[in-house]
Structure formats: C-alpha cells, structure tokens
C-alpha cells in the first residue's frame, strides 16, 4: 500500500498529488527527479511517511552513512547482508576500541610543559630582615627573671655549671612574691631531668633515641590528671635546655598583656644604611612586625607603596643594607645565633622566617644573587592545586594570600584550638581563642607535643588538606661572602657609622654586616603547563577514527536520529489510527474528513489505477523527453488524454 | 580559413569549455545537494516538510560553523612548543672561571694618581664627621691641601644639608653657606623621614650651559655619599690613564695565584688568560679556550675541580673605593663575557670556599614560537664586546651607544665604541650630568634599549652552591703559611698572613648535564590530520568536497550570474539596435538565446530537454502527429524553446 499520509486530514488533495508524483517517479527510477518533482508539489510543514517500509526505503535511498547502511538496505541479498553485518561489527568494534583509547588519553589530562623566558622589568621581591633576638634582654629581664633563676638552678644541678650571666639582683626580687601561684610552681610541673637511657622505660620516650651516651635529658609532660605522662627527651643537653626554656618563654609571653610595649622597634638602630637601585630608601619603604623568636622584622618592598623594580641585574641595582649585628643584649638562653636573618619572598606572602630564611654573618658582606622562577600549574582536573585557596577546607588565619605553608600552619592552629582549647603562641590567633598559658591551660604542653606528633605523621590530615597553589614564584638564592670592612677602610667607615647613627660600635668588625640582594639575570623563567589534549584535538581524533572506519559524520547520526524519531512518530500515528478504526465501527458513523477514511481510499486509488496502464502505453511511443516534464503538467496531459 | 582560426576551432571542439550546466543558481544548488558526498546537504533537498527542511539547513550550517571554529582553534594553537628535558651523563667541558681581586689596582701604585683625591676625601671626612686618622698625618695633609688647588671639590662639591625645607647647604671645603635655588632632585622618595637632617650629605651636578638646571643627589648614609662621590672622581681619573699603565698597576697573575690544581694535576699561571676589566682591574680566566682547547673533567667531585689559593693583599687596598676584602669569581661559558660587576660571587679570605656546579643547558625555539634571537645578528645594536651575544651585552652596548651619541664620550665601565674615547671632565666638563640624566632615562626604559634587545635562544648556566669552611685550621696554619711564603719567592722576608689568603675550589657536583629544549608540539601533518578529523566528524567532508564547494558556490554561481548579466546586456543592446522591427525579440530571452548559446555550450536544461536543436539546421522530420502533442495549451507556453528550435 503505497500512500503518503499528511498530518492534517484536510489536505487530502495534496497528499494525493504527492502520491501520484511519487508513483511517476518510481516508474522512471530516477531519484533526482523524484526530488525535483516533490519540490514542485505543495508541501506541508512536516510530513510523515505512510508506512515503515516506505520510511526505510526513503532512508536507504537518501542516507549518507557509508557501509553500515548496506546492512539494512541490501536485504534482498542475504549473503551480502551477512557480509556487511560482519564488516559493520568489525569496524564498529575497531572504532570503539580506538574511542576508548582516545577517551582514556583525554581523561588522564595530559599536560605539555612550557618553558618561558621573560625579560620584562623585574619586580623586586619583598625582603624581610630580622634581628634574631625577640626583645632586648634589659627590657624583658623583669619578666624572665624567675625563669632564668630556675634555669640557673637546673643547670647547676644537672651540669654543675654556674651560669653567671647577669649582674642580677635575684635576691632582692625573689623576696617580693608576685602571686601565690608563682611561675616556679608551674615550672616545677615540667622539670628538666636527666635519666638513664637503659632504665626500664616506664614512660615511653617520645623521640627516637639517637644519643650515644647513656644519658638522655628531657622534661616530663602530663595531662591534667597526671595519669598520662611522657618524656620529651633530647640527646643533647643544649637542645633540651633551649626547648625547655622556650617552652616556658612562650607561656610567659602569652601571659603578658601588652607585648607591644616591650618591643622597641627602632629602625635606625638596626639598619644603618639602605639603598635600592642606587637610590636611598627610607622608612616609607618598609613595614615592621614582631616575631616571638626572630625579633623585630622589617619587610622591605612589601607592596604597600609603589613596588620596586630592577631595571638591570647586578649588585648595583639591587638592595644594599648595612645591618647592626651587635649581640650585647640578646636573651642568652634563647638567641644563640648572632647576625641577622634574611628572607626573600613574594609580596603578600607571609614571611616564615624558619622556613626560607638564612642568616647573615656579622663582619661580612653577604651578596645574595637571586634567580626568579615561576611555576604555573593548570588547575581544575589537570592537577591538584588551588587557585586562591578558597576551595581548601582550612580557614587561612594569616592576613595574606594563600600559600601552602600558611594553610598548614592555620590547619595546625585550628586543630590545636579544637583539641587543647588554646592557641599556639607562634601562630596567629583564631577568633575567639586565646594563647596557651599553663596558668590557665595546665596541660597544654602535653597536648601540644602529642598533637605535634600526630601532625607530623599526617594523622591530622593537614598535609593532604592543604593543596599547592597553582602559581608559585620561587627565588633561587646563592650567596657569596667577603670580609666586610677591610682593614684599611675600617677606620673611617666605623667612625662615620658610630657618628651618624649615634651608636657606639664596640667591636668594629663584628658589630655590623652588609647584605646585598640582587637579581643575577634579567630574565626569569616561567614553567607553565598547557593541556596537551584539548577538546578540539579530542574531537579531531574522534572524527578521524569515525571517518576512517565508518565514513559517517555527526550529521549522519542526526539522520539516524531522525529515522528513529520518524519511526516513533509513524508508530504513534498508526497505532492511533488503529485505535480509531477500532472505535469507529462501534459508533457506525460514516467517517468524514479523516485521512484514514476508508471510503476515500478506493476512490483515490480508483482514478489512479486505470490511467496507470494507459500512460505506460503512451510513454513507449512518446519521445522520451515528455516523461521528463514536470509532474503537474504531466498529470494535466494525462487527464487530457483521458 | 586562417590557420589560427582552425586551431581555435579545434581546441574548442576537443576541449570544450563549458559553463555550469544549470540555468539558475537555485537549480545549481539543487543539483549540488543531490550529488555531493557531503552529509547534510542532500537531506535539505530530500526532506519532506518545511520544518524538517529548515532544521536540516540549520544543522548543516551549524556543522559548517563548528568546523570553521574548531579549525580556527587548531590553527591558533599551532605554534605551541613542548619542552623536553634530557639528563645525560657525559664528560662535561669545564666552564671558564674568571677570578678578580675586589680591589682593582694596588693602592701603592695608584698613590700618585689618586693622592689629590684622597687628600680631599680625608679632608671632607674631617670636616663632615670629625674623623682623623692621626693628628700628625692630618696636619700634613691639610698643609698639602692648602698648597694644591682643590679641583675636585671645587668642581663637584660635597654638600651638607642644614635644613632641607629652606634648602640651605654648606659646601664642604670652603664652608660657604648658600641657598640652592634649584629644585632638590634627590634620589630618595621622601626626604623628610630620613634620620637627622644634619646627616644628609650629597652632591650637585649642574648643566654647565644652564646653571639653573641642576640635580642634587643626596644620601641618607654618609658612607654611601662618600663612596659614590669618590667613585665619580675615581672614574674621571682612571679614564685619563692609558691601558698599559693600568695593567701594570694591577695585580699580575703571579701576585694573585699562589697554587693551582686542576683535575688532580698541578697547573700554573700559564693556564690563566689575563683580561682587563675597567672596574676590577686585572682578572684572570682559567680555561678560557683561547687556544681552541677546552678542558674537561673526567669525574665530578671537589678533588677533580679547580683548586686555587689566592693571595689577597689586604694592606694594599684602596680604603675609599672598596670596603670589603676578598676576591670575585664568575663561572661562565668560554664564549660569554664575564660580567663580574653584576653577577660575580665573592670569595672570603681566611676561608676555604667550595663552589659546586650543576650544569644546565637550555634551548628555545626562535620565531615564530618565541621572540628570541639565535645569534644576535638581527638586533640593530652593534656588539661592543667581542664575545657572543647575550641580553646583557646588548643592553650595555645599547647604553654605551646612546651615551656616545648624547654626551659625546663613552662611559668608563663599558668597552669603547670605535672612534670614541672615555669621558673625563678635562675634555667633557658636563659629562657627568649628562650621564646621570641618561642613566635615569635608561632605567625608566625611555631609551628603547629594553625593547630592541632580545634574549638569546640558547644559553648555558651553571647553578652554584657555595659552602664555607675555616681555612687554614689552627694546627695547619703554621706550616702552610710558611710553605706558601716560600713559594711566593721574592717576598720571602715577608710572612704571609692568613687573612691575605683565600682558598677556592670549583668543581662539578655531578657530571649530569640537564638539557632543556623546546620542540614544536605540532607539525603540518598533525594539523592536516586534525583538519581531516574535524571535517570528517561534522560533515564527512574531505579536501575534494571542499574543492567541490568552492567550484559550485563560487565559480559556477559566479558564471551563472555573469551569464545572466551578459544576456541582459545583450538583450538591452539588441533592443536599442533594432527596437521597432524586432517584434519577437522577447521570445529570445533566457538561456536559449541563440547569441548566447553560441558562446556557452548547452546548459543543463537545454542539454537535457533539447536534443541539440542548433546543430540540426536542416528541417527535422516532423514529429508524429500524436494527440499528445496537440495539447498546445499545456506546451506552448512553457516550452517556447522547442518551437523555436524547430523554426531555426
């Protein structure tokens, strides 16, 4: 039953015309002309095929998919169909194998490494310089007095060393008791002790025994109820005393309400001369902060004012500082190093002096040459890095930009507050917390050292939580040293320094140091990453495979989709019609206007069938070009014939 | 017939040039869509329903758009390079090592040239800071100073700023108080903050032609002020001294080098090539490769590197020019110029300095991948150093050229361009002002040097790791100094001091050479393959179908439109020529116009429909008088060509 059905039932004549055209076309077996004729005929917004067979016929005639279509469209020849189905599945399999390889390659997110050498004006990094001594000993002596006395006593007991450090008037001071809960009470909780190594360990050592002699030294840390205790032991007495001292020092600092009053940050007393790029720099170029261990720190070029840029590499175009390194008023048990500490870091990055700094020797000119190297990783799925730290589940306690170190420290501090109820003094204070102090938090030391072990073995998960920033700038430093103040120039320079800065340098050569920080090269390296396999290349590769094996394209797929949609639509129409035809006999009303009018069909096929044969007869005699005429006229002619 | 015409006719017959065989553009499109291999297009024609057809047009166009977009992306990412890092273990050539004493010339030899300047400097120190080396000495100096004319201080006096807001200054030697009218062009940003005002010292440089145009340089630290001021005059004096005298005043190789060991074998001063540096005097390059031989090390480690003991005569140092003691070394390639003043590493006295090296070689791709230069020949700056190109050389050469152009003389620290001479204020009294102005311009990138100069594409670098140790140890000090003193020979009577010696070891940490090179990530094969992929993916198109599209959409369409115009023009011409008699002229319009047909061979329509009407000039056998042909109503109107063809 060859019939074209229009959606709208009223347009029966159009459908009939189309059918006639099609018949004509089929007779001539010329597909081109079918289309030509069809175009001539009036068409609807959307038309559907009458039957499945017709649909497939149309599809087979007009599809552009190679090969695979033979499978469906050559069904008359079973042998061919079998052959083509084998071919089809073979190519299909090959194609999907290749697709799999391509997808695996894409989803491994490979990257290309790019090496870029830029030579713009180099922005000078921030340089932080610290005095290596937290407070002048004379200023904090009052606070540390009691601790010093106990230390003195301990050293006397343990090592039989009489530490005659200061011309102290302990006797006078100790007479006036400050408070009933004096410091000594707390210090006694954590006494520095020496004990035999091979003694049956009732208390397990916290650190691995690396000592060679029989004695280990350490101090005991207990929780509130004194049930859980352990020894924090050290193989070297020096380490033990320093650690023990600084543990108590932290407590004292945490108790002091106004540490600000103690630190007298005097720029002129620390930095005697400062030059950048042959230009004098001054107070406007630095900011000051205080570090509890490294003392007064001055950060040059931290980005508050206009940034310094180096126009040329070389020692004359860098930062040159004269630093005082006098050690008279260092805290004896805390600051064992003399000199100054220098660190080079990016602007807006916190200066972690214990991470990246290095010390400047007194009496030396230290020339530090820098090479800048920037590494930029691709974020997202390419690597596990973070753009600005906003997606890291750790609150950044530092007021600066996200860095991995800042994150790790913040992470530790937050865990510390959670676990021990107070904050570690060296790290910034989270909101609502207070610094640890054993007058308030008796067992924080125990808690802290326990936590420290967990932190280092990554039980806290800080190292996995904190991800690397995607863009990291590194400064590779290498230093050269020369004696500063040669014997011949020593006189006049030290004279001028003492005269100008009104500070009497006692030891001419060791009281001062010179630091030069400069760029070694004008160029800086940028290690970048770029995706090696982008969506564009993936699509290209897929297209390559597709074309190679199937010779089809996205549009062929749409063709297939259209076929399926048509199939569904026809199924729907046919079932709908079938339902109607089931209902109609029951009502027994002569159907009107419906396209599936049964009365209509014989009528429509009636006139067409008889001329069919007659036309055939005429065509044989006619010149062939007649049949090429447009269908409308042809039909007219046929009608005329009749 | 003329022979030319015959050939023309023959060609026309055998190689017929036909236009597109479709009368109109729409028919051409139709024909194309039915026959092309490109997907999508056929569906536009075949589909039933206007909506369906519209969707197919949309799909096809979007596929074309996608292809164009993706191909554009491919082209744009064509010039990307990927980096490969190779680490290979091999016998490495030892780099050149240049060693200089920080003090350029022996102070004792320089005395006669610098005596006046030193006197004035000491005087200034005394006036400013009350510093005196010793009573008697100062008095003598002061007497001398009275005798000689103080030409340096007179020319560029040191100024002491009493009050910055009032701009009153004191000239140092004369003690004259005066006011500066000019704006204080100081080098600091905010002067007010800098310490105590009486400490501010500086000097003034003026344009001699226009005395109001002055620049005042101030320093917060007196040490810096004195040193800068001293250096300025020192350079003037040195510029007047011929090179040979300067070489003689500097340290000889025998002076500097006490012992030398390389790769476990003893070496001596013959292995060092002298080289005169304007600021550091005589420097010596080990393994400079000047005789074409470059030494290699067979093994890494400090034993197989270069070991030298340097003699640094601290007592013979210039007290004002240099304030530190030691030597400077630089590790560089044999073809590179050693920029000691910029990137040298200091060596400390009484210390053993071990410098471990790690070698990295990099190569970048030049244009169009990046903006670098292979040899430097494409840079419009003449290389003043006779060493291979580097960015640093280019910048210095560029500045020196600008200096010669602007100030008329060359700056002392850089090599002389041909035909120029070094600046000194005997001949060029205003050069210093000119230099400072120019340098400031250079720093602010107004000279254009930074724009002209490009970096070199390939470069070698040695990453250095320095470690220090006390040397000689207190127990070995005694015998070692004695033997070294004996080695030194001629000064046997003078015992060496350990602060005059420096031990230096330069060695390869390992013999791994890291080679970083860029390779093009794409090549033309990959690009074409990707193009093919895109074309195939969206439309199953190929190069042939692209050609097809060009043929149909551009050439054929153009022909059809041209033909249309040609016919119109002809018709118009004919109408004008014979307007009244030609009644049946309108019948000749269209593709079957005999005039046009002569030129174009049969079109698509005529070829199909008409069995060559114009070749049959003889009257054809009349068609059978079938009844079908009598349907004039159906035929006459749309088929005028058939009738006309017959009438011919």
TrEMBL record, chain A:
Transmembrane segments: 82-103
Single annotated GO MF: ligand-gated sodium channel activity
Region (Disordered): 172-210, 589-614
Biased composition (Basic residues): 175-196
Skewed-composition ranges (Polar residues): 598-607
Swiss-Prot/TrEMBL catalytic activity: Na(+)(in) = Na(+)(out)
Pfam families, alphabetized: ASC (PF00858)
Keywords: Cell membrane, Cell projection, Cilium, Cytoplasm, Cytoplasmic vesicle, Disulfide bond, Flagellum, Ion channel, Ion transport, Membrane, Sodium, Sodium channel, Sodium transport, Transmembrane, Transmembrane helix, Transport
Subcellular location as annotated: Apical cell membrane; Cell projection, Cilium, Flagellum; Cytoplasmic granule; Cytoplasmic vesicle, Secretory vesicle, Acrosome
One cellular-component annotation, GO: acrosomal vesicle
Topology in membrane: Multi-pass membrane protein
Function: This is one of the three pore-forming subunits of the heterotrimeric epithelial sodium channel (ENaC), a critical regulator of sodium balance and fluid homeostasis. ENaC operates in epithelial tissues, where it mediates the electrodiffusion of sodium ions from extracellular fluid through the apical membrane of cells, with water following osmotically.
Family the UniProt entry places it in: Belongs to the amiloride-sensitive sodium channel (TC 1.A.6) family. SCNN1A subfamily.
Name the UniProt record assigns to this protein: Epithelial sodium channel subunit alpha
Species name: Gopherus agassizii (Agassiz's desert tortoise)
Organism placement in taxonomy: Eukaryota, Metazoa, Chordata, Craniata, Vertebrata
TrEMBL record, chain B:
Topology in membrane: Multi-pass membrane protein
GO MF entries: ligand-gated sodium channel activity
Main subcellular location: membrane
The reaction(s) this protein catalyses: Na(+)(in) = Na(+)(out)
Protein name stated in the entry: Sodium channel epithelial 1 subunit gamma
A Gene Ontology term for the protein's cellular component: sodium channel complex
Keywords tagged on the record: Cell membrane, Disulfide bond, Ion channel, Ion transport, Membrane, Sodium, Sodium channel, Sodium transport, Transmembrane, Transmembrane helix, Transport
NCBIfam families according to UniProt: ENaC
Organism encoding this protein: Gopherus agassizii
Signal peptide: none
Spans traversing the lipid bilayer: 54-79, 535-561
